[in-house]
């Protein structure tokens, strides 16, 4: 009976699968893809029997593919409050990707409602691998989060703040009607 590399399988699990089977000379070769980060033990099965010992694979995280956005609280606040959101970097398989504050600052921009305006804001790495953005502004308007790694163009809104003797100003505007 003709032998075939199609008889090769392995103990599936650990989010690993056989991507390609092929013959190379007198050898049968198999390409495996594992999508879950971590150490995985794989045992190959040929004609119903396990081959040799367990092969240990150490799967590393892939490069940054997407950023998952989640607002902490509301995405609409007054200029007296901060808008806070987290971005979680993910690789192509949903694992938390390795990145840095500097890398995120280069990939994520906040577009202000008025051209020429810009914001300074802290980006803080959280213990779960996500990054916290704390946005403050003294100008009301709709702000956009711009990044090719974020689906769509999310927005947040700052509305006018509370009247304060420290931050509010007032001026008299003549209306043309005189009441002496």
Detailed description of the structure:
The protein is mainly beta and 180 residues long. It has 1 helix and 15 strands; from the N terminus they run E-E-E-E-E-E-E-E-E-E-H-E-E-E-E-E. The chain has one helix spanning 101-107; strands at 8-10, 16-24, 27-34, 38-42, 44-46, 49-50, 55-59, 66-72, 76-78, 83-90, 109-111, 123-125, 131-135, 141-146, 155-159. The strands form 5 sheets. Strands 8-10-13-12 form a 4-stranded antiparallel β-sheet, with no helix packed on it. Strand 14 and strand 15 form a beta hairpin. The protein is rod-shaped.
What topology emerges from the helices and strands here?
Layout: E1 8-10, E2 16-24, E3 27-34, E4 38-42, E5 44-46, E6 49-50, E7 55-59, E8 66-72, E9 76-78, E10 83-90, H1 101-107, E11 109-111, E12 123-125, E13 131-135, E14 141-146, E15 155-159
Parallel strand pairs: 9-15
Antiparallel strand pairs: 1-5, 2-3, 4-7, 5-6, 8-10, 10-13, 11-14, 12-13, 14-15
Query: Rounded to an integer, what's the Rg over CA atoms?
Result: 28 Å
Major β-sheet, in short?
Answer: 4 strands, antiparallel
Q: Could you report the average pLDDT, rounded to the nearest whole number?
A: 85
Q: Element order, helices and strands?
A: EEEEEEEEEEHEEEEE
The fraction of residues in strands falls at 35-45%
Catalogue the unreliable spans.
none
Number of beta-strand segments = 15
The share of residues in helices is under 10%
Quaternary: single chain
Number of helices: 1
Strand order of the largest sheet: 8-10-13-12
**Shape summary:** rod-shaped
Distance between the termini: 113 Å
How would you classify the helix and strand content by structural class? mainly beta
